[in-house]
Amino acid sequence: MALTDKDPHNISxxxxxxxxxxxxxxxxxxxxxxxxxxxxxxxxxxxxxAREDNRGKGRx
Length: 60
Description:
73% helix
C-alpha cells in the first residue's frame, strides 16, 4: 500500500530508502564510496515506479 496516492513507494520501501540515505550520508562524511548504496536506492525506486505504472494500466 502506498503512503499517499501520488507516491509509488510503500511504507517498507520508504523505510529502506531512508535507512540507505542515512548510510550514504555517513559514508560521505567519512570520505568513502557510496555508489553501491545509491544503486540499491535506485533499484528500489525503479521497482516501485514499475509496479505503479502496471497498476495504472489496469485502471484505465
